[in-house]
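Hi V.,

Quick status before I head out on leave. The structure for the redesign project is tokenized and pasted below; the design run finished overnight.
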């Protein structure tokens, strides 16, 4: 028995199959008409399609940029083999393969595209260059000597060659390279210990003495500014400070003698390096940052060298005009500046948004203020830098110096660039972002919450402080995330309000008041600019640029993720404020 559809009851009638077939055909034709493409439908869907295409292109660009930074940055510190080359012009080279590229075909090659390779040969103090181009067709022999070493030095960049001698007060080890290598490895721990002792004397002991001497000198200068040195009390204070300075100078002389002996003892332990063409270089063992034989390294050994280089990059200070070493001061300066900027901009932006949305009477004046805030977001960042230099550094900082630190003049304390003024300048630059985001969050809070609070007898301030503002905190944190992301990467305002190429002292140390906001600082964004565009060795500094960029992106992501987690917790507490 065949089924059929009963149109009145909506059921299948088994005795009328033609009705079921007719219904299915009509339903299929209606669906076909709904799926039919018309010019009007194409025009109406065009904005959606273009938006999707632009979003896909933007995502591809972001992914491509991140992929380029990751590939170029993460492979920077991986140890590569050393190649010994002999060319047709009787040249001998020992270096790392930096990159390859095709060169135009010549007549002798009959249209074949030849390759050339850029080798990093190091030994800058001997060859006066770090890199050399070699055509592949000019290479006669190519090998990987197992005894070749890579010596990373404190000065003059890496050395590629061989170890000839190890000189110590007990004698000189030379001849067999295996014995020389073992002797050098035995001397390395004691050399690192001597380096730590010398560095501690220079930075901590002598630094503390200089700070004490400076404090007594400033105290004498304060007495001179008072103009009352003829009184007995002032005379006793003056004599006490002068005596303290003499005692400290005598102590400094003894420590300087001890430091000289330490350096002389350290200079007695030396190593002699030989290049591939027989040139020699002698340097203290303590001047070696890292040494290894790349052609003998196993996979685990390469991972160990890579990890040690990565640790040095993150936790050590820079050297060699910021092209080598680490970026620890720049990391600290970037994080501290971003946190100070956030602490300054969030209260200012939230108070401004509360005044505009909750208290101010809507009218032409408030509309003009909103237009001014929106236009302020489009002002070039360098304009904020000039304003920060004139207002914060010269006006406020200069006033503080004249009334609080007159004994330090003409050397400025707060009257020059510093991490405090740079943070406040970026806070002014990002305050429109906080105001706009906070106003949108306040507008999204239901009016029923305000009315219920007022109906229970709460005042306007209590309603805003205990009901409206907590519900709008997720939106405030959204604006904070945007402000942190923009402020952490800005460079132009910082160049004239406190950032420097190399900061001799960090804003954080063991001296009172421990955090010195009047000091200049280093920044990862400016570090990228300095290494990438101001370095005299562009090829050697490219790797540092990519790694610094990757580190800056990682810091921004970590700060944003932390703010997002806090925002998520507040959203769970106030489900009605999902803004």
């Amino acid at each position: 028995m065949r089924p059929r559809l009963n149109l009145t009851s909506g059921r299948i009638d088994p005795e009328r199959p033609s009705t079921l077939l007719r219904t299915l055909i009509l339903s299929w034709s209606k669906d076909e008409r709904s799926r039919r493409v018309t010019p009007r439908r194409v025009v109406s869907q065009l904005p959606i399609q273009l938006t999707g295409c632009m979003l896909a292109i933007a995502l591809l660009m972001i992914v491509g940029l991140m992929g380029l930074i990751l590939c170029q940055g993460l492979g920077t510190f991986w140890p590569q083999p050393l190649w010994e080359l002999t060319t047709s012009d009787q040249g001998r080279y020992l270096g790392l393969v930096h990159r390859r590229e095709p060169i135009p075909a010549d007549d002798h090659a009959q249209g074949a595209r030849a390759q050339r390779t850029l080798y990093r040969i190091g030994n800058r103090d001997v060859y006066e260059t770090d890199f050399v181009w070699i055509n592949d067709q000019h290479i006669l022999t190519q090998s990987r000597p197992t005894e070749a070493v890579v010596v990373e030095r404190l000065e003059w960049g890496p050395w590629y060659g061989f170890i000839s001698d190890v000189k110590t007060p007990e004698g000189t080890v030379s001849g067999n390279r295996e014995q020389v290598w073992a002797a050098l490895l035995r001397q390395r721990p004691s050399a690192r210990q001597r380096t730590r002792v010398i560095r501690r004397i220079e930075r901590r002991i002598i630094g503390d003495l200089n700070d004490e001497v400076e404090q007594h000198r400033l105290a004498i200068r304060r007495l001179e500014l008072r103009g009352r040195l003829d009184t007995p009390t002032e005379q006793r204070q003056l004599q006490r400070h002068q005596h303290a300075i003499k005692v400290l100078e005598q102590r400094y002389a003894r420590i300087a003698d001890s430091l000289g002996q330490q350096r002389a003892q350290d200079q007695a332990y030396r190593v002699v390096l030989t290049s591939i063409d027989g040139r020699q270089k002698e340097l203290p063992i303590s001047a070696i940052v890292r040494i290894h034989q790349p052609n003998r390294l196993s996979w685990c050994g390469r991972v160990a060298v890579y990890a040690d280089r990565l640790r040095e990059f993150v936790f050590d200070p820079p050297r060699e005009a910021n092209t080598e070493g680490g970026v620890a001061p720049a990391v600290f300066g970037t994080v501290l500046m971003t946190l100070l900027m956030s602490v300054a901009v969030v209260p200012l932006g939230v108070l401004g948004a509360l005044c505009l949305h909750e208290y101010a009477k809507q009218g032409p004046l408030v509309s003009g203020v909103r237009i001014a805030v929106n236009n302020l977001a489009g002002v070039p960042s360098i304009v904020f830098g000039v304003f920060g230099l004139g207002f914060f550094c010269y006006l406020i900082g200069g006033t503080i110096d004249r009334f609080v630190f007159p004994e330090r003049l003409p050397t400025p304390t707060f009257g020059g660039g510093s991490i405090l003024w740079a943070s406040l300048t970026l806070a002014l630059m990002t305050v429109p972002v906080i105001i706009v985001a906070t106003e949108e969050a306040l507008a999204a809070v239901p009016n029923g919450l305000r009315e219920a609070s007022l109906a229970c007898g709460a005042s306007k301030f209590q309603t805003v402080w205990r009901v409206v503002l907590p519900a709008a905190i997720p939106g405030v944190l959204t604006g904070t995330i945007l402000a942190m992301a923009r402020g952490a990467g800005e460079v132009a305002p910082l160049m004239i309000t406190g950032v420097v190429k190399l900061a001799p002292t960090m804003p954080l140390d063991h001296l009172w008041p421990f955090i010195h906001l009047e000091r200049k600082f280093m920044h990862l964004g400016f570090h990228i600019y300095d290494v990438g565009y101001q370095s005299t060795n562009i090829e050697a500094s490219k790797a540092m640029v990519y790694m610094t960029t990757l580190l800056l992106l990682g810091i921004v992501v970590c700060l944003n993720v932390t703010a997002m987690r806090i925002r998520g917790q507040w959203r769970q507490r106030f489900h009605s404020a999902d803004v």
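Above is the designed sequence. Residues 7 and 19 are 8 Å apart (CA to CA).

G. will cover questions while I'm gone.

Best,
W.
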